[in-house]
Design goal:
Elements (H helix, E strand, L loop, with lengths): L1 H14 L2 H13 L11 H11 L4 H6 L4 H9 L9 E3 L4 H4 L6 E5 L6 E4 L7 H13 L9 H4 L5 E5 L10 E7 L2 E9 L6 E6 L8 E2 L14 H11 L5 E9 L2 E8 L9 E2 L2 H9 L3
Antiparallel strand pairs: 1-4, 2-3, 2-4, 5-6, 5-9, 6-7, 8-11, 9-10
Helix pairs in contact: 2-3, 3-10
């Protein structure tokens, strides 16, 4: 019943004018309406970007396939995870030759990802059904994230970049007007997802964003300065972007570029950090 109600709610949002739809979503999360004409908080500025920012590079850099060429030209192809295969329709014959372990994902969505670590997890029929479902549907159009609405859906297959057989830490760098300011670190994403932030000098911050606060200490990446520099190079065409990287065995790999983190509806705790992040973004 809840799933049906959610589907109806999303459909109604999709039918509404964009300004009204983003206002309703924002109100549902924060119990206040966004100041879209003069946004102050970070999440308000994410909503305003949805309505205003039509930089064509957003479409390229939000596409997990097309962004690879962009990144390779900017920071070098050695920092781009190789592509095993990509295409608009799952190819069961090609899948038989994909080297294990690998990752399957959709290029136009967030969260559509599947790990195949061993031959025991290699179910061709399941993969085909899942991938065809991904490319058949647009990515949550009710969110009004303009860049994703203009990406041609594809399936992307990459090698599984592992750290001791596990998912490596994902260093998500928030870059405001060309300056890398904060690094989001997500821990235990597959089991007990927690999150924390560090500033660019690797001092831990005292706020949480949506997920529970990770109380432990995350080791400073060996190549932090290089990672920050890469993020600033990739961000030059944008007023704000979150650039994600992995560090595996001392090597930096690019993850993705995100322009609407959390769809602009994730709560900071304490709330004042929403304004602090917003103050860094000259919109």
């Amino acid at each position: 019943m809840l799933k049906v109600a959610k589907k109806i709610y999303h459909h109604i949002l999709f039918l509404l004018p964009s300004k009204i739809a983003v206002g309703i979503m924002y109100f549902r999360s924060f119990r206040r309406f966004p100041r879209l004409s003069d946004p102050k908080d970070f999440n308000e500025k994410v909503q305003a970007r949805k309505l205003r920012d039509r930089n064509p590079l957003l479409k390229t850099c939000a596409d997990k396939v097309l962004v690879k060429d962009y990144v390779a030209k900017k920071i070098g192809d050695e920092h781009v995870i190789p592509t095993i295969w990509s295409g608009e329709k799952f190819d069961p014959v090609a899948a038989l030759s994909w080297p294990l372990p690998f990752v399957v994902k959709a290029n136009h969505t967030s969260g559509d990802i599947f790990f195949v670590r061993s031959s025991d997890e290699m179910d061709i029929a399941k993969l085909e059904q899942m991938c065809n479902a991904w490319v058949a549907r647009p990515y949550q159009p009710h969110l009004r994230e303009w860049a994703y609405q203009h990406i041609k859906p594809q399936i992307l297959v990459e090698p599984f970049i592992a750290q001791n057989g596990k998912l490596p830490l994902d260093f998500k760098i928030f870059v405001f007007n060309g300056v890398a300011r904060y690094i989001q670190v997500d821990v235990d994403r597959e089991s007990n997802h927690t999150r924390c932030f560090y500033d660019r000098d690797w001092h831990k911050c005292d706020f949480a964003l949506y997920y529970p606060f990770y109380k432990g200490h995350v080791e400073r990446p060996k190549n932090l300065e290089k990672m920050l520099n890469f993020a600033e190079i990739l961000s030059k065409e944008f007023s704000f972007v979150r650039c994600d990287f992995y560090e595996v065995d001392g090597h930096i790999y690019f993850g993705e570029m995100t322009f609407y983190p959390g769809a602009g509806i994730e709560n900071f705790t304490p709330r004042e950090w929403d304004r602090k992040f917003g103050d860094l973004w000259t919109f």
